[in-house]
Amino acid sequence: MVITDLVKPYRVQLVHDADDRLVGVNISAAEDGELDHDMIREATRALSDHMRRERMQSLPRVTSITTRVTRGDTPASVRAAVEAHRAGDGLMTPAYLSRLAVAYEELVGGGYNAAHQLAAALGKDGEPMPLPTVRTHIKRARDDGYLSPTTRGREGGEATEKARTTIADLDKH
């Protein structure tokens, strides 16, 4: 059994078994202190941050679209969204929003941070599109029915039938 301490004005102990599985968490006041609601909340936040960092370090690194763009192997769905965005002079047209929804779905499904990857692909002159702008476009695609809803603040969702029908109609012409 291995115990890891995270010490602040409180002590958080992570207890791992012989197979290095997390089997316990202990939160206690440090050095004659007393736990109150705010300290417990801060301790759980610190624990969550610690766990998130460990998880991120253990995940395999994913090739970013920025790298993929320079290599020329950007997914076709992302290239189509970029082309629709440029064809619409940067406006959020049905063609762009439907293709954005399909690209977003593919990127999220592939384990990419979709908003960041789309920002890199949609940018100009080697600079990414501002992330708040990309998020606004994704929200608009959801609000207009091209991308299915998801939990607020979480990536996810699928291109809707409306998006796929719009693309099919555009491809006919």
Descriptive notes:
- This protein has helices at 37-58, 65-71, 76-87, 94-109, 114-122, 131-143, 161-172; strands at residues 2-7, 10-16, 22-29.
- It is α+β, with helices and mostly antiparallel strands and 173 residues long.
- The protein folds into two domains: 2-58, no CATH class; 65-172, Arc Repressor Mutant, subunit A (Orthogonal Bundle).
- It has a three-stranded antiparallel β-sheet with strand order 1-2-3, covered by helices on one side.
- Helix 3 runs antiparallel to helix 4, helix 4 crosses helix 7 and helix 5 crosses helix 6 (131-143).
CATH top level class name of the largest domain: Mainly Alpha
Report the CATH topology name of the largest domain: Arc Repressor Mutant, subunit A
Percent in strands? 5-15%
Radius of gyration: 22 Å
Q: Which H/E pattern describes the elements?
A: EEEHHHHHHH
Biased composition (Basic and acidic residues): 152-173
Region (Disordered): 144-173
